[in-house]
Amino acid sequence: MKKLLCLLLFTFILTACNSSKMSITEIQNIPNKVQEIINPDYQLQWINNIDKNASYIIFHSTDDVTADLEVVDNILNVKLDSTGQKNNELKMYVYKLNRGDAEFDTINVKVNGQDTPIDSLTGF
Q: For residue range 13-44, what is the model confidence (pLDDT) as tens digits?
């Protein structure tokens, strides 16, 4: 009985870790393949990793930036907002977007509420 409970608990933990919920997180350890593609001349880049069902959003700003997601009518809104804290130099923010099971056919990036074009869209 004890083994069965341990097995069920282990299965539950694995299932929770493989959650298919869409999320966005800022990352510090940038994968090598992503680093090779980043162009510092672009303000906003989108890099798809097709094998991992993930994307990387690279955004350069002199402000501190936070990121959030919202799906409305099959449109993924990626919201990048400055917190008002200015830096003296341009900083690169790298966000990893796990798409999960979210269904959308359009991507819209909003910087401080304004629709912003993506300078480069690439993948590997």
A: 444 455 578 899 999 999 999 999 999 999 99
Task: Tell me which amino acid residue 27 is.
Answer: I
**Pairwise CA distance, residues 2 & 27, whole Å:** 39
Q: Which residue has the tokens 């130099």?
A: 89
pTM summary value: 0.79
Place of tokens 């936070």: 66
Phi, psi at 70, each rounded to 5°:
-155, 135
Q: Which residues contact 54 (CB under 8 A, 6 or more apart)?
A: 48, 96, 97, 98, 99
Quote the tokens at residue 109.
């990036």
Q: Name which of 113, 105, 122, 101 is nearest 38 in CA terms.
A: 122
Q: What is the dihedral of CA 105, 19, 38, 43, to 10 degrees?
A: 60
